[in-house]
Amino acid sequence: MTMQIRAIAIYSLDGERRDVRFALGRLNIVAGGSKTGKSALLDIVDYCWGRSECTVAQGEIRRSVSWFAVLFDRDGEGILVARRNPGPAAATSDDIHFERNAEDLPERDDGFTKNITADGLRLQLSILLGIPENLQVPEPGATRQPLAATSGQAIFFCLQAQDEIANRRLLFHRQGDQYIPQHIKDVLPYFVGAVDEDHYLNQRRLADARTRLRRLERDLADAEAAAGESSGAADRLLGEARRAGLIEFGETPADPTAVRQLLEVASAPRSATLAEFEESGTDLAELEENRRRLRVEMDGIREEIDEVKRFSKEAAGFETEAKEHEARLVSIGLVGATDADHGSCPLCASRLTVAVPSVEEIRRSLTVVERQLASVRRDSPRLQTRLADLETRRSTKEREIREAQARIAGRIAENERLRVQQDRLAEGARVAGRIAYFLENARTVSVGSQLREDVTRCRAQVSELQRLVDPEVTEERLAGSLSLIASYLAEYARHLDLEHSDHPLRFDRRNLTVVAESPEGPLPLGQMGSGENWVGYHVALHLALHRLLRLRRRPVPAFLILDQPSQAHYPPERDVGQVGGQDDEDQIAVARLFRLLWDYARELAPTMQVIVMDHFEVLDDWFRDATVERWRDGIKLVPLTWVR
User: Fold this and answer.
1) N or C, which terminus of the chain has less Cβ within 10 Å?
2) The pLDDT value given to residue 421
3) Torsion angle in degrees (nearest 10) through CA of 177, 130, 204, 449
4) What is the DSSP string of 64-106?
5) Distance (Å, whole) CA 610 – CA 539
6) What pLDDT sits at residue 614?
7) What is the dihedral of CA 223, 228, 234, 237, to 10 degrees?
8) Which position has the higher pLDDT, 143 or 78?
9) Cα–Cα distance, 31 to 295 (Å, whole number)
10) What is the torsion angle, in degrees rounded to the nearest 10, for the CA atoms of residue 162, residue 165, residue 168 and residue 171?
């Protein structure tokens, strides 16, 4: 699943539209002179992605534009996001228009209406990216709160503003904002795939299992404390039962099983008149009705768990079948792109009785299967979350049933104590209640009892879940991801002929910087000289990161926007225009960077889109082919007719 940009648009105060179109899965260059509005394109994307502040520079754009809009593409589906321009006097606007299945940008802004909040927009974008419910829990002892990875953090890896791409201390978008660096560090393991999709579900299960284990261990400890007195208590209760007339007098049996059987006889309910048991009977009826209701609810929860598991199993089966169907359809790559003759065999050219399907039909079938698979994968994490919630509800309901049982036993004992001085029948009921309570607790502490088994089973479950969410395992996976990023980083740094690229390079996740392991010691980006190195390592690191993200199909937008990467050689105010790219060292270095971006996008096509805004232009066919807009000779983002 990939999300790229089809177009960026602005609307005038009169509702007219000016748009910039981009090609998917390739390099797109917007070339032009200084102060033509190139940098505003990145700010518009950032603002329409849900940023709380509009960072479009004050000037013609803020004075002449009514709405900003971005048309995203998510695997062929148009996603339109438009936000009202807050104008020169405000920092943001709450008017956001969100639309799925959009065919194109509307001609005018008349149809834009506020239909979503900023939080709702970020949630919808997270869903479209395929980000399931998650929670990144900080290391033990940390004071910060757990953080959920969302589309709001994913965009940090996709934008490099003009003042960021050449910064030697800040590597990522908005890294200089408060709390953002820590957010990047916390969500990076998830976005690079070091934390799998089941991690959040296992965390929830572990928390529930630990709570359940503490409760079971407490109940077992209380029961075991009373177990030492169990034998003597049974004999005393047996004597009381005889004195109360619940059982006949006789010798006390030596066999504990026989004693228990006599106590069960003594605790059996006996009939009584309504007048004698009106109060206690009514109360017990309510408690028993409550217990019955809880058991019915428990049955309903269990049935729903079975249904969710069945549905999840069926979805997995469907996904397996769909994958097999997808594998068969992929054979389209063996057939030529033309559909000249459907009646001939594409391999031996013999005539066929039944014409073969066209390549286009096979491609359409493949697209349908891929979308069905994407739908199943998108829904799977929701099923897991639903299953975790149901398991939590089941544990809660089991506890409520036990508490209801305890309240019934306690109510029996309490009611019998209140009527201890009434008559023999009341005394017998009191004793019967005590015996029933004793038997209930004695049942839990008997050798091989269910409570002991529950404690053992729960401890094993906690151990298994701790293994699944072990931070050391996550760190090992993260180390592997960082190792891949480092290898890609070194490849691109050598291609750009950057200083220190002959030394081992790595991405320092703790400090969010690039480090070269020189013979004199670690050399972070901030200590590397020249703006060419700072820009080059920014570009190389982001290319390396997105290469891994695309390889693992991670839920991060599949576009990278770079603003003025040539500024280390040609400051924005020095507009060199079109050059040959080989006249001097500066031209060679910048042309080499653009050529890397061109080759990179072609290598990852169609899964990666690169957008560059710059005033530098190379007189080569590949550069012209990548140029989607050229703003010179009075052509700007904001048409001159809009300026008032």
Assistant:
1) C
2) 47
3) -170
4) HEEEEEEEEEETTEEEEEEEE---TT-S----EEEEES--S--
5) 11
6) 94
7) -80
8) 78
9) 70
10) 120
- Angle CA(375)–CA(376)–CA(381) in degrees, nearest 5? 105
Specify whether the CB–CB gap between 336 and 358 falls below 8 A. no
The per-residue pLDDT for 181 is 96
Side chain identity, residue 503: H
Instruction: Express the helix, strand and coil content of the chain in percent, nearest 5 each.
Output: 55, 15, 30
Q: What is the 3-state secondary structure (H, E, C) of 501-555?
A: CCCCEEEECCCCEEEEEECCEEEEHHHCCCHHHHHHHHHHHHHHHHHHHHHCCCC
Tokens of residue 476, six digits: 């090992």
Using 50, 70 and 90 to split pLDDT, how confident is the model at 444?
Answer: very low
Question: Residues 228-254: what's their mean pLDDT?
Answer: 67
- Look at residue 447 in the predicted model and tell me its pLDDT: 44
Secondary structure element (H or E) that encloses residue 152, with its range: helix 151-154
For the chain, the residue count is 644
Q: Is the pLDDT of residue 342 over 80?
A: no
Q: Torsions phi, psi of 518, nearest 5?
A: -85, 165
Residue with tokens 């004050």: 58
Distance of CA 186 to the CA centre of its chain: 13
Tokens 């891949």: give the residue.
484
Q: At what angle are helices 424-445 and 256-267 packed, to 10 degrees? A: 140
> 450-468 vs 199-227: helix axis angle to the nearest 10?
150
- pLDDT value of residue 360: 67
Weakest-pLDDT range from 190-199, 359-368, 498-507: 359-368
Of 525, 465, 520, 467, nearest to 499 (Cα)? 525
Residue pair 37/76 in contact by the 8 Å Cβ criterion: no
Residue 352 CA to residue 454 CA, distance in Å, equals: 67
Radius of gyration of the chain (CA): 35
Cα(10)–Cα(224) distance, integer angstroms: 74
Query: How far is the CA of 191 from the CAs of 185, 203, 376, 573, in angstroms?
Result: 10, 17, 20, 37
Say if CB 22 and CB 5 are below 8 A apart. Answer: yes
- What number is the average pLDDT over the span 614-630? 93
How confident is the model at residue 448, as a pLDDT?
44
Q: Taking the model in full, what pTM does it have?
A: 0.64
CB atoms within 10 A of CB 529: 10
Start-to-end CA span in the chain (Å) = 43
- Is residue 551 pLDDT above 60, yes or no? yes
DSSP state of 427: H
